[in-house]
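Long-time lurker. I teach an intro course on protein structure, and each term I like to show students one example going from raw sequence to a predicted 3D structure in token notation. This year I'd like something fresh instead of my usual example. Would anyone be willing to generate the tokens for the chain below so I can use it in lecture? Attribution to the forum is fine with me.
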Amino acid sequence: MMEQIDHIDAIDRKILSVLQQRGDISHADLAELVGASTASCWRRIKALEAAGILVRTVRLIDPARVGLGVNVMCSLRIRSHAHDSRSAFEAFVDTRGEIVECFSMSGEWDYLLRVVVSDVAAYNRFLMQVLLAHPAVAQASSHFALAMTKYTTALPVQL
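-- Reply from a regular --
Happy to contribute to a lecture. Here you go:
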């Protein structure tokens, strides 16, 4: 059950900011950086977790170093906007490791996917044999990233 946090103060924001950059930092080092006691930091982290603000701890991988250096932004139109059709497509997306982000969109396209693959041939196979073969998908438009000029998972909580 999630608790509700009525107010996120300056120390909570500092904690969130640091944890987004250094998820493996010790509570003692975090306390020193944010100007609070170790026990206070621990309690605050537990409250932020219970409120669903801090959701999980992960380690980020350099995609190129594991042979996944191609990023494709794929815009999709679906055949039907019926709830069952959208739900089936979104469940399908959850099963595909190549799709690392999926956004339901307003405007001309229904979904925007970020697909990460090893090379153009791998994307072509995924597009033709998997994505366009899905019964909900009507049309796709692919845009290959030439270079990543910014990438972050950190949100600007220090406002």
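Some talking points for your students: Strands lie at 70-78, 99-104, 111-117, 137-144. The longest helix spans residues 38-50.
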